[in-house]
Amino acid sequence: MTLEHSLHRAAAHATAAHQLLRPTPRTDDKPPAQLRRYEVCSLLPNGSVVETRHIAPALPLFEQAFTAFARGSLVETDVGPVAIEDILPGDRVRTADGSFGEAVWKGMTTLIPARNSASGASMKLTTFMADSFGIQKPSSCVVAGPGARLLATPPHLRHTAKAGEILTPVQDFQDGMTIFETAPPAPVDTFHICLRTHAVIKVGGLLFESYHPGAEALRLVSYPIKTLFLEMFPQVESISDFGPLAFDRTLATQA
What does the pLDDT look like over 159-180, one tens digit per residue? Predict the structure, then answer.
């Protein structure tokens, strides 16, 4: 499929989604729902890699799939640390248990962290200073996006969960000192990657999850939105093809 065809099809579905999101004629002067461009790089079953661009409403369903890691984040692979923007489908990424998983998908979008999304969600980044979780954890500054989750338990959940075995949004770790919110006014490229199976990967020395939408992510969405979402993941045909979650998530983000 050519890039032009992909954009045309994405725009057509986005238009259908708008009509469903606003089923009655507008009688006010509010702006239409925000659209965002998402770039995808996927590994096809025949072993080839395809790059496509998509246009979709800036809804949490889409934004969480593209906003885990800021440009320059170092992902540990079988050939050493590689910047997230240079990871390609087919690369072997180190997981928490010391094995390697094959990357099959990478997504990228551009945010302005100082602005909230169209749904009102915060797009601010979370900065982890060196040694914020102990010696060499991380070894240098790590900047995570709003879609990132760490395999760690924040202080306010330690009385209910076994430490280190729950996936938690990075925002829950902000302490205002060594882990804090940042909101640059300039555009920032953010990324996420998906492995063949859901896993915890090492990025900047910290344990983050690879992308997984959650088993119930499409349960309440409209057909146009569901179709548009699945078009962004040519390696799957349905939500069940993402497989099970490798670890539990905090209840606030369990999909």
Answer: 664 555 789 999 999 999 999 9
β-strand partners of 102: 92
Bridge-based pairing of strands 248-249 and 206-209 is: unpaired
Widest distance between CA atoms in the chain: 58
Query: What pTM value is reported for the model?
Result: 0.83
User: Residues with Cβ < 8 Å from 137, sequence gap 6 or more?
Assistant: 131, 205, 206
Q: 116-140: string of b/e by CB count within 10 Å (b at 16+)?
A: ebbeeeebbbbbbebebbeeebbee
The interaxial angle of helices 3-21 and 223-231, nearest 10 deg, is: 160
**DSSP percent split of the chain into helix, strand, coil, nearest 5:** 20, 35, 50
Question: Residue 36: what residue type?
Answer: R
- The Cα–Cα gap between 117 and 121 comes to 5
- Beta strand 166-169 with 248-249 is parallel
**pLDDT more than 90, % of the chain:** 68
Question: Using one digit for the tens of pLDDT, what is the confidence trace for 68-124?
Answer: 999 999 999 999 999 999 999 999 999 999 999 999 999 999 999 998 877 778 899
Calculate Rg over the CA atoms of the chain: 18
- Name 206's bridge partners: 203
* DSSP symbols for 84-97: GGG--TT-EEEBTT
Q: How far is CA 45 from the centre of its chain?
A: 22
